[in-house]
């Protein structure tokens, strides 16, 4: 992830929705909840609507979503 271009919360939401099958399940202030059903159960994550997500924040979002950062990076 280091050395990658900055990515906004809105971009992350679009990628997770279109490419990974997540749907918006709620919003509280500047944070958006995303979830999807899998054979193993429900998976969810929370994405802050910031102009630029820090690397650690993005890693945390992807960890909750159970998505490999390298797989996510191919959609950027």
Description:
With 76 residues, the protein is of the alpha+beta class. The protein has a single domain, classed as Hypothetical protein (Metal Transport, Frataxin, Chain A, 2-Layer Sandwich), CATH 3.30.920. The protein has 3 helices and 3 strands, in the order αβββαα. A 3-stranded antiparallel β-sheet has the order 1-2-3. Strand 2 and strand 3 (41-48) form a beta hairpin.
In short:
With 76 residues, this protein is an alpha+beta fold. It has a single domain (9-73), classed as Hypothetical protein (Metal Transport, Frataxin, Chain A, 2-Layer Sandwich), CATH 3.30.920.
SSE inventory with pairings:
Blueprint: H1 9-20, E1 23-28, E2 31-38, E3 41-48, H2 55-65, H3 69-73
Antiparallel strand pairs: 1-2, 2-3
Properties at a glance:
single chain, 76 residues, alpha+beta, Metal Transport, Frataxin, Chain A, 3 helices, 29% strand
Supply the helix-strand structural class. Answer: alpha+beta
Helix content: 25-40%
Instruction: State the distance separating the first and last CA atoms.
Output: 11 Å
Specify the overall morphology: globular
Low-confidence stretches: none
What is the number of domains? 1
* H/E series: HEEEHH
According to CATH, the homologous superfamily is Hypothetical protein
What is the CATH topology classification name?
Answer: Metal Transport, Frataxin, Chain A
Question: Would you identify the CATH architecture?
Answer: 2-Layer Sandwich
Strand order of the largest sheet: 1-2-3
Please count the beta strands (DSSP E, at least 2 residues each): 3
CATH class: Alpha Beta
The DSSP helix count reads: 3
Q: Biggest β-sheet, characterized?
A: 3 strands, antiparallel
Strand-residue proportion: 25-35%
Give the oligomeric state: single chain
Cα-atom radius of gyration: 12 Å
Mean pLDDT: 93
